[in-house]
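Field guide to reading this record: the first block holds the primary sequence, the second block holds the structure written as discrete tokens, and the final block holds curator observations. Each block starts with its own label. This record concerns tRNA (guanine-N(1)-)-methyltransferase, catalogued under organism Vagococcus bubulae.

BLOCK 1 — SEQUENCE
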Amino acid sequence: MRIDVLTLFPKMFEGPLTESILGKAITKELLEVHVRNFREFSTNKHQQVDDYPYGGGAGMLLKVQPIHDALTFIEEDAQTKPRVILLDPAGKRFNQEMAEEFSKEDHLVFICGHYEGYDERIRSLVTDEVSLGDYVLTGGELGAMVMIDATVRLLPEVLGNDESAKTDSHSTGLLEHPQYTRPANYEGMEVPHVLTNGNHKLIEEWQLKESLRRTYLRRPDMLESIELTKEMERLLEEVKKEEKSI
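BLOCK 2 — STRUCTURE
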């Protein structure tokens, strides 16, 4: 996969792109990333990329020309038609389903805004307008980092075990079940016996039940968007009865 990032602050990406999973993906040549300062594409002699809005209003708007020229350069350089993502508080909220969708693309471009907003004509140049959540950040850089991380970890061979991504919270439609490691007993805090008895069928049932429990208690809204099997319905009813009796 190739990812291009358009930003006024490219140094913000140096740490996240060289450490952990993203850094390893680049080293293994599973990921190619180009971070570009779109100020370099400004035709203004002062390399100005923002201006006052027509009709008045607070703040400055990013001009369409530098973004347009930067996207043209990227397309010509890559010889592809990328999926272009505009980071915008008014965009569609980012989620796991969107990360999975992005991970199937060969080339992504993230446009990180700053200042008050965008010249509306910039929106005609993009394929997606995406928000990290219902809050406003200083710029789109942090949001882009989160989206890149969530997307790249889903690429084949990026994680040590491809099954890890498939069983993560949100990938299954449920929150992930509790997990434990050694020792089995730490100062009286014991690992559930079912996880140490070697019965894989019972372990799988416990994991599913506890995923349902955690989702029911913390994110019940998620249960409305998935189709429950008969076994899941049975286990969920058990969970509800157990939680009522507490």
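BLOCK 3 — OBSERVATIONS
The longest strand covers residues 83-93.
The first helix runs from residue 14 to 18.
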